[in-house]
Design brief:
Layout: H1 6-17, H2 22-30, E1 40-42, E2 46-49, E3 52-55, E4 60-62, E5 65-72, H3 79-92, E6 96-98, E7 101-103, E8 108-113, E9 122-128, E10 134-143, H4 149-154, H5 178-198, H6 205-222, H7 227-297
Parallel strand pairs: 5-8, 8-10
Antiparallel strand pairs: 1-4, 2-3, 4-5, 6-7, 9-10
């Protein structure tokens, strides 16, 4: 992942590899109650408009509703304009005709702000129709930094977890502040333990590894100029992954040993049977010789 697009890359990777992680977030934002194992259909993200191509961060079908979520790392006053452009493009692809009239269905949309802690809940704009009527277009926003670590884990908002570390990117002298570093490492030990229980203990090692990797990638970016923090963070989050790798190597060695043992056993068995056969043939030849000698004497 390139640093310039790392936040978007992590966002899309989660949707591609672990789409179920977005379900608790959608439930949180839109007040739904989908189960985490509900089917999620990834719809086309690229839309053609008169002004050219529009590419959305997400375009999901869950049950009978379309959901659209954008990931935004910087404050942008024109975000609401881009959102309505995206939503209009998505809506055009979902036009339906009922009772002789066409109807457009706007998606359930929201914006994920990775930085900042503003208290506002929505971005909005007014649409003024030719007859003077106005329609208010509103999109809920999620400020990641407003969620504490405990809240993220309690609500199972794992989709936010890789971005949680961004709250520390403006901390000064963090590399020399042992107390602050310990606080961060303690927090991420709690996160690692949670991921073990959520994924490893349920036999989903791949999801565990993927989540650890995504968290670590953003942490490496946030702490790129803080070597002590970066190293300590890697020890906390990467230790279990290395342990799993060791277990695999040990298991592989055991399996190879068993396989080699079986092969050696077969070879030894064949050799023993060959020796028995040779001994039997020698005994038969000896008895034949004795019989011939007896007959000759008679």
């Amino acid at each position: 992942m390139e640093n310039s697009t790392i936040f978007d890359d992590v966002f899309r990777t989660m949707l591609e590899k672990m789409p179920q992680l977005v379900v608790p977030l959608i439930n949180e934002v839109f007040g739904t109650s989908y189960s985490e194992d509900i089917e999620i259909i990834q719809k086309r993200n690229e839309h053609q408009t008169q002004n050219g191509r529009v590419i959305t961060d997400s375009h999901l079908l869950i049950a009978d509703r379309i959901y659209h979520m954008e990931c935004q790392s910087t404050d942008d006053s024109t975000m609401v304009i881009r959102m309505i452009e995206y939503d209009f493009a998505i809506s055009l692809e979902n036009v339906q005709k009922k009772n002789g009239r066409y109807r457009m269905y706007f998606p359930q949309s929201c914006v994920l702000y990775l930085r900042g802690t503003e208290k506002k809940d929505v971005i909005s704009m007014e649409l003024v129709m030719p007859n003077g009527n106005t329609v208010e277009y509103m999109v809920p926003i999620v400020q990641v930094q407003n969620f504490t670590c405990d809240e993220i884990l309690r609500k199972h908002l794992l989709f936010l977890l890789p971005y949680h570390v961004m709250r520390y990117e403006k901390e000064k002298d963090l590399d020399a502040d042992s107390e602050k570093m310990k606080e961060i490492f303690d927090e991420y030990q709690k996160i690692e333990k949670y991921l073990e229980e959520k994924f490893l203990d349920r036999g989903n090692e791949k999801a565990y590894r993927d989540m650890i990797e995504l968290i670590t990638r953003i942490a490496d970016y946030v702490f790129r100029d803080k070597e002590n923090v970066k190293k300590g963070f890697g020890d906390v989050m990467g230790g279990k992954v290395l342990e799993l790798e060791s277990d695999k190597l040990i298991q592989k060695g055991i399996e190879q040993g068993i396989e080699q043992g079986i092969e050696q056993g077969i070879e030894q068995g064949i050799a023993m049977e060959r020796k028995k056969t040779e001994a039997a043939e020698e005994e038969i030849q000896r008895l034949r010789k004795l019989l011939e000698e007896k007959n000759n004497k008679q």
